């Protein structure tokens, strides 16, 4: 037997690839954009482990992840599931299980992500009607009622926080009430808002809620969570034809998430990371976490205005978990994002076509020391690019605002 290694074909040679340390910056960048966000060290440690995806340890982890997710979603529903994939995979899982050819969907659209829910519904074969209003506070509930009566949708989709243009829908409860009174299921994207601001799945009668790992929960990107109500689960059970998405089929996912058996190999490291992230939320408790987010986001907004910059969203529709800042004349978001990253090692986000930059206030981003560094970096960047800003006033206001809310 020839035990010698076969020579490789020498017309295709291995490429020279840099060691990671040659690619990554010496100082880690501070992740202050619209996600992913910094992760606590306990989450990073959990993410470095690989365990048996069907063993007893994993079964215990899954039980606890579901219990903690119920607290974070504020639901008693049994139907909590996870998915290997981004927030959009959870969104697609919610939609493709509840929507099939012929389903009527009403989509409240006020930006990129709410538009994505409408598009996913269309692709699943639904007859979709959209209600467009960029600033949720100016949305008319009477018009919504008229559309519900006219179109008689099986499902309504909406986003609690539109990360894309930094607007917030603070009327989810009333919107859901109108839909539910007509037997319409309510699907809510809480990807950037969950655990940053109140969300009450049961009290608000939400039938499907989705979230990602890399935003408010401060876990890694790529493992997401969703929950269905009993009414949603009945519709899933009664669907006329099997879901064409095999990986996203909720009834198959039930095998892993509720019966300790196999669907696909779960992203074990990411699930362990999510377990740690959820445990930290439970340890902090939701009311304390919401207060921390409000205090930090308010201080960030106050300091940006004190510096002489203005905010994109009107106060009535402003999202706290991602803050949109108007750009001074002649300055592009590409210039701001690349300068703040290369000179000050802070990452922030541009936007989908709007002349704004966005700074996140989700999970670990809401820490005073990160705010001081970020506000300083933003003001310095604006100055470097030729804008007139009053950076000392911005820094002073950051401190004052944090002190004011501490005294409350
Ligand atoms: C980030 C985000 C998503 C998409 O999440 P991905 O993980 O990028 O797929 C969807 N909706 C909202 C509101 C988001 O903020």
Write a compact overview of the structure shown.
The chain is α/β, with parallel strands linked by helices. It is 43% helix and 14% strand.
- Ligand kinds: pyridoxal-5'-phosphate
Number of helices: 14
Q: How large, in whole angstroms, is the Cα Rg?
A: 23 Å
Taken from the alpha-carbon principal axes, the silhouette is globular
Q: What structural class should be given to the helix and strand makeup? A: alpha/beta
Question: How much helical structure, as a percent, in the residues?
Answer: 40-55%
Q: Distance N terminus to C terminus?
A: 81 Å
In total, the number of domains comes to 2
Extract low-pLDDT stretches. none
Which series of helices and strands comes N to C? HEHHEHEHEHEEEHEEEHHHHEHEEHH
Q: What is the CATH homologous superfamily assignment of the largest domain?
A: Type I PLP-dependent aspartate aminotransferase-like (Major domain)
CATH architecture assignment of the largest domain: 3-Layer(aba) Sandwich
Q: Regarding CATH, which class of the largest domain?
A: Alpha Beta
How much of the polypeptide forms β-strand, as a percent range? 5-15%
Tally the beta strands. 13
Sheet having the most strands? 7 strands, mixed
Mean pLDDT: 96
Organism: Massilia cellulosiltytica
GO biological process, one term: glycine biosynthetic process, by transamination of glyoxylate
Family: Belongs to the class-V pyridoxal-phosphate-dependent aminotransferase family.
Cofactor: pyridoxal 5'-phosphate
């Amino acid at each position: 037997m020839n035990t010698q290694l076969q020579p490789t074909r020498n017309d295709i040679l291995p490429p020279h690839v840099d060691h990671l340390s040659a690619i990554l910056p010496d100082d880690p960048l501070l992740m202050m954009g619209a996600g992913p966000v910094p992760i606590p060290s306990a989450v990073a440690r959990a993410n470095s482990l690989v365990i048996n995806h069907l063993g007893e340890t994993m079964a215990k982890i899954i039980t606890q992840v579901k219990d903690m997710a119920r607290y974070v979603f504020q639901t008693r529903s049994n139907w909590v599931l996870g998915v290997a994939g981004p927030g959009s995979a959870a969104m697609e899982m919610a939609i493709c299980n509840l929507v099939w050819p012929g389903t009527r969907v009403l989509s409240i659209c006020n930006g990129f992500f709410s538009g994505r829910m409408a598009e996913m519904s269309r692709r699943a074969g639904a007859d979709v009607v959209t209600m467009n209003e960029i600033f949720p506070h100016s949305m008319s509930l009477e018009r919504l009622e008229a559309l519900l009566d006219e179109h008689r949708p099986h499902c309504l989709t909406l986003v609690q926080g539109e990360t894309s243009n930094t607007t917030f829908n603070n009327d989810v409860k009333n919107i859901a009430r109108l839909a539910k009174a007509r037997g319409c299921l309510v699907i809510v994207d809480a990807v950037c808002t969950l655990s940053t601001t109140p969300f009450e799945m049961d009290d608000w009668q939400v039938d499907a809620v989705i979230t990602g790992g890399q935003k408010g929960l401060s876990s890694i990107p790529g493992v997401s969570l969703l929950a269905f109500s009993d009414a949603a689960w009945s519709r899933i059970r009664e669907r006329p034809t099997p879901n064409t998405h095999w990986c996203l089929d909720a009834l198959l996912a039930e095998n892993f998430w509720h019966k300790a058996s196999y669907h696909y190999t779960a992203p074990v490291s990411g699930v362990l990371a999510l377990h740690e992230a959820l445990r930290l939320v439970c340890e902090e408790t939701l009311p304390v976490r919401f207060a921390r987010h409000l205090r930090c986001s308010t201080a960030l907004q106050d300091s940006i205005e004190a510096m002489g910059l203005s905010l994109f969203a009107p106060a009535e529709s402003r999202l706290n978990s991602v803050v949109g800042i108007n750009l001074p004349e002649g300055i592009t978001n590409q210039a701001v994002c690349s300068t703040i990253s290369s000179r000050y090692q802070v990452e922030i986000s541009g936007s989908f076509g709007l002349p704004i930059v966005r700074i996140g206030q989700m999970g670990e981003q809401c820490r005073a020391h990160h705010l001081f560094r970020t506000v300083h970096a933003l003001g310095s960047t604006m100055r470097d690019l030729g804008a007139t800003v009053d950076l000392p006033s911005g820094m002073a206001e950051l401190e004052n605002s944090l002190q004011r809310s501490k005294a409350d």
